[in-house]
Amino acid sequence: MKSKFGKVILAGGVLGLCLTTSVAAATIKELQGAWTMNGTKCEDTFKKAGKTVEFKDRTASTSTGLLISGSKVTGPNAVCTTKSVKKLKDRLSATLSCTDSMIESDMTQTFKIVDANTFQRFDPFGDNMYVTYKKCDM
User: Fold this and answer.
1) How far apart are CA 93 and CA 111, in angstroms?
2) Dist. CA 100–CA 77, nearest whole Å
3) 104 near 4, Cβ under 8 Å?
């Protein structure tokens, strides 16, 4: 069975698809592409396939990447789309619809756009705990 961890990883990327913040303007165009967790290398997670970028091995338990295309975010274990988004001070909160190979579920995820190449996904159980994602230049 797939874990919810993959869905949580996806959530951070999906949130910025239609929004802006006072920290950094983010549009769909700016958030398209490949993202990986801080501390991991883009070339270890993704590969070029012609003009597109894809996971080297999407099923690997060590995959920490997100591919954002349009309103969909593909991660190691699931695909999420945004249902609704609201601004909460310097953060954004989104309700996401996520599907893995067995389950479809909705969840809420909070994140902050730091700049055009960085965002933080906050842990739902700890306000000061977050994972940082960096955009891959591929």
Assistant:
1) 7
2) 6
3) no
What is the C-alpha to C-alpha distance for residues 77 and 3, in angstroms, rounded to an integer?
Answer: 8
**3-class DSSP state of 59:** coil
Cα 41 off chain centre by: 16
As given in the structure block, the two tokens for residue 28 are 């769909």
pLDDT per position as a tens digit, 26-80 = 334 556 789 999 999 999 999 999 999 999 887 775 668 988 787 787 888 889 9
pLDDT beyond 90 at 82:
no
Residue 78 CA to residue 38 CA, distance in Å, equals: 20
Instruction: At 18, list the tokens.
Output: 């239609």
Q: How far apart are CA 13 and CA 75, in angstroms?
A: 9
